[in-house]
Amino acid sequence: MNVNGNNEKPATAEDEYKKDPKIKKEDIEELRKWARMQPDLPFNITEKELICFYHSCYYNIEDAKSCMKNYYSIRSNSPEFFSKRDIDSDELRHINQAVYFSCFPVRDPKGNQIIFHKLKKFDAGSYVFDSGVKSLFMAFEGCTHQYGTVPGYALLFDMKGVGLFHLMRLSISSLRKMLVYQQEGMPIRLKTIHVMNTNSLISKIMFMMKPFMKKELIEMINFHTDMEPIYEIFTKDCLPSDYGGNLESCDVLHEQYLEHMRSLKTFFEKEEANLAVKNSDNPLSEKEELANSIDGLAIH
């Protein structure tokens, strides 16, 4: 089951080439050859994954290389976010009883995929920051696995119920890792962030986050105390019924998210296994190494 609650097959690399003529096969091949020569990168990076890096960096090969390096380095050093991603594990079952997540089935008017997050239980003792971040990143990966590239992503957060005790449970180290990964490693185009039902705590939260945020990310964030601007930006067609929208309720959308994550259990397991197998553990064959060396020669 995918994010829409149906069995539509995930996008393939060929789908991506047909969808976006700016994605050049020769550039993706150049990225593939470069990636295979990097000892610290995984051995089996798929063509679709290479396309996502390339697209997220607006078709700039050098930026895509940097993004890939950051992506795999951060993930290798952040097991609290990127390991044991079984939605039915005790850890994730606990956080998903306390928090709503959803990849909305209808995109915003600009074609951005909407990722939604809010507290389900207001008790701070039910909230574990690292587990929440893990579930959030799983939502992003579920979308890229299903849809491949999209024009952009919009994050929609509802602050209702967030209190001082939630703030006290934040880890500065984890917060920094999350923000660095969002800005330097995620193979998506994050376009906008909207925070609903903001309260006086938002200034304290931003004070903690700003040292790790670039100007571009800060400028993406929009704060709202009422729903009218949200209706204008997203329209009711892509909002849950809880907010006066035309989608299913947050409860139903959250259950669809859980089912989608459940269907990706094998995908997450394989990805974690592949992350552990570096190119340094799988040296290129002599023929492929020779071919890559020849391709790199320049005649002056």
Automatic annotation (TrEMBL):
Membrane-spanning residues: none
Against Pfam families, the record matches this protein to: CRAL_TRIO
Question: Annotated region Disordered: where?
Answer: 1-21
Q: Which SMART domains match?
A: SEC14
| Basic and acidic residues compositional bias, start-end | 11-21
Identify this protein by name: CRAL-TRIO domain-containing protein
Record-level GO cellular component terms? membrane
Instruction: Specify the CRAL-TRIO domain's residue ranges.
Output: 88-251
Query: Which residues constitute the signal peptide according to the record?
Result: none
- Highest rank taxon of the organism: Eukaryota
Question: What CDD domains does this protein map onto?
Answer: SEC14
PANTHER family per record: ALPHA-TOCOPHEROL TRANSFER PROTEIN-RELATED, CRAL-TRIO DOMAIN-CONTAINING PROTEIN
From the UniProt record, which GO molecular function terms apply? Answer: phosphatidylinositol bisphosphate binding
